[in-house]
Amino acid sequence: MIAALICVVSIAALLQFFISYSRSIIAAYRKAALSDQVREVAGIAGDTLHGEQFGRLLQLVRLCPQKGDDQGDLSVVQSYYRLMGAFRFLGRVLWPALSRWAEHERVDCVYFAAVALDRRIAYSRALLAQQMTPQ
Amino acid sequence: MLGPIDYAIAALAISLELCLIVRLLASKDCIRYIALTLYALALVTVSIVEDFVLLRFGVHSQAYGYIYYYSDALLTIVLFFVIMSFYQQVFQQMGVGKYVRLASILLLSATALFSYLVVRRIPSHHLTNRFVVEVSQNLYFVGVVLTYLLWGAVIKLRETRTRLIQLVLALGIFFSSDAAGYALRNLYPSLEASFLKWVPPIAGTFLPLAWAYTFTKVSEDARLETARVTRRAPAPAGMAAHQQAS
Prior knowledge:
Chain A is an all-alpha fold. In chain A, about 80% of the residues lie in helices and about 0% in strands.
């Protein structure tokens, strides 16, 4: 009985800690605005983001040279995005409000990926400019 | 019999623990986070001793069993002091440092008394796998409760230090995953061989990784609105969330 109680409480706490940890990472990226260039490259039309854009953005991020400081963030947010995908699916069946909330979170993940892509593109450009500069 | 994955996780864990120590000692963070530094040093020492005993006596030896579970319990108690140091940082401006110290001494005494009572009740030859699993489960659960209360204080006091927030949340993930893992082992011992045996080593690898990452990437001056972590933040300027027709 005690073990069951500990199990349930711990899993609930784990979910809450993981969600807050992921959000703390995403929040740091929300301060940045997206450049027109990344909107064009990622095919972001207007001011609207869709949860499904995450996969495509992640593929583009992986195509860019690594700056080396966002790999951990990407792994955490990717896991968070998957978790929100599961919540969205469950919400559709059981609780529509959960589905809507999960979709909002997925959109935040998309914004995070877009900022990460923006930073990597800027880094690639800086690298290229460095190589083009005559010694 | 240990497989290559076990050795890989052990090697990864010790590398990450060393990274954390180097990162802490290379800066003034080791003074500011003295309890965490001591924990990291204890963690590396225990990992080295454990690996030595493992190679010398084998994974099924009684010596390794004792070292594994007792050092795990001791490290968890050291981790309680890390939580207390976080409490002290969160309540710094309220000037309640002496109460936090008093609470940490009481907590240690209570934990020691509880452990003594449990050990006294059960003869040493009954020190079975189930018993140590139960003690570890309880210790980790105390850790979950303490970290959860700390997180509550962080939210209530609108703590904005990003580094402290991420250190606390990583600790919460570590404690809750281990407590859930041990509780599941207690409920379903048959699941241990299949996947529950991976929970403690993975959680043990996550904590030094997340802490080392936080100390490397997040500066002490970085600030974060707690509301952005606990509630849904408003959409960034010029961007809107699109609701899918479901």
